[in-house]
UniProtKB/TrEMBL annotation:
Organism whose genome encodes this protein: Roseinatronobacter alkalisoli
Domain called ABC transporter: residue spans: 5-255
Domain of life assignment: Bacteria
CDD domains registered for this protein in UniProt: ABC_NikE_OppD_transporters (cd03257)
Descriptive protein name: ABC transporter ATP-binding protein
Matching SUPFAM superfamilies: P-loop containing nucleoside triphosphate hydrolases
Organism taxonomic ancestry: Bacteria, Pseudomonadati, Pseudomonadota, Alphaproteobacteria, Rhodobacterales
Keyword Nucleotide-binding found: yes
Length: 326
């Protein structure tokens, strides 16, 4: 199957007075039509900057310094803003963590959605309105004709996020980048939106990149998972394989720290230490100071290699099956 989007050795650095920050350092993955790619990691791992890089939305002092972002064979890494305007929103869309980053608080939902349609398609205002109504209904907004003339503050958090998702879906884009869009929502609304997004991806064939720190979310949503740490992908493969047989100690630590995995009365498992500052990364494997399997050999840079269970992992001392089963 041909990938809709391929990210090849992407490097996005921030040039600060303190030094160069390698926020994204050689990230590679691909996503096919109708697939969901889960991009997972702690805060500061580089997953959100990866998403912004794909959208051409990295602000100064950051910029893409290497690699390619191939959308249907076209490299987007060095497009000018005018060229991006023809792609962003129509072919590749983004759903932000905070819907208020998408919605203007002083404009009605109808105004914002109709403008989003007419920015890319030359149709009448009435035709644009009909498209907006149909899209709001797709994401489960009740009485869409009435809600279109409301302001963002008149919606609950969950409904605002549904509107943001609807705006991303207006042009049936081939790729959607979702940056933790359900983090601020309660569990019930989160489950509803996850189910709807998955159904929409399957029904329309949209390729979805779901950025999150929550492995429990991607376990029920993603087809493939890429685990990021300190700007790099440390493990990547089919979701079921990575979650059942984690090879990288960092992935294993993330899975073990999920509260639902702990027994009653047993302390919550934690990964010792903290994510290192990107301006002062340790030599070799960035996870080495926190890793229970680390040896002096980990001071050398480790390329990704295929594990017996099928996924790729950047580790010289991968987890053994006996350790994973514990």
């Amino acid at each position: 199957m041909t990938a809709v989007l391929q990210v090849e050795n992407l490097k996005t650095h921030f040039f600060t007075r303190a030094g160069v920050v390698p926020a994204v350092d050689g990230v590679s993955f691909s996503v096919n039509r109708g697939e969901v790619m889960g991009l997972v990691g702690e805060s500061g791992s580089g997953k959100t900057v990866t998403g912004f890089s794909i959208m051409g939305m990295v602000d100064k002092p950051g910029r893409i310094v290497g690699g390619r972002i191939l959308y249907q064979g076209r490299d987007l890494a060095n497009l000018r803003e005018r060229e991006w305007q023809a792609i962003r929103g129509r072919h590749i869309a983004m759903i932000f963590q905070d819907p208020m980053m998408t919605l203007n608080p002083v404009l009605k939902i109808s105004t914002q959605m109709i403008e989003a349609v007419q920015a890319h398609v030359h149709i009448s205002k009435q035709a644009a309105r009909e498209r907006c109504l149909a899209t709001l209904a797709r994401v489960g907004i009740p009485s869409p004709a009435e809600r279109m003339d409301a302001y963002p503050h008149q919606f609950s958090g969950g409904m605002r996020q549904r509107v943001a998702i609807a705006i991303a879906l207006l042009h049936d884009p081939e790729v959607i980048v979702a940056d933790e869009p359900t983090t601020a929502l309660d569990v019930t609304i989160q489950a509803q939106i996850l189910a709807e997004v998955q159904k929409l991806a399957e029904g329309s064939g949209t390729a979805l990149i779901w950025i999150t720190h929550d492995l429990s979310v991607v376990s029920s949503l993603a087809d493939n998972i890429a685990v990021m740490y300190a700007g790099r992908v440390v493990e990547q493969g089919r979701a079921a394989t990575v979650l059942r047989h984690p090879a990288h100690p960092y992935t294993h630590g993330l899975i073990e720290s999920i509260p639902s995995r702990n027994k009653r009365g047993v302390d919550l498992a934690q990964i010792p230490g903290m994510t290192p500052p990107l301006l002062d990364l340790p030599q070799g494997c960035a996870f080495r100071p926190r890793c229970p399997n680390a040896t002096d050999a980990c001071r050398a840079d480790q390329p990704p290699r295929e594990m017996p269970t099928g996924q790729m992992a950047r580790c010289i001392h991968p987890m053994r099956e006996s350790e994973v089963a514990q």
